[in-house]
Amino acid sequence: METSEQRSTDTAGRYELSSGEPISTGVVMAIAAASDAEPVPTADATEGTPVLEPLYTVVDPDALDALFAADGSGTAGPKRVTFFYHGYEVTVTESRQVCLERLERPAGDVAE
Question: Which intervals of the chain are annotated as region Disordered (predicted)?
Answer without folding.
Answer: 1-20
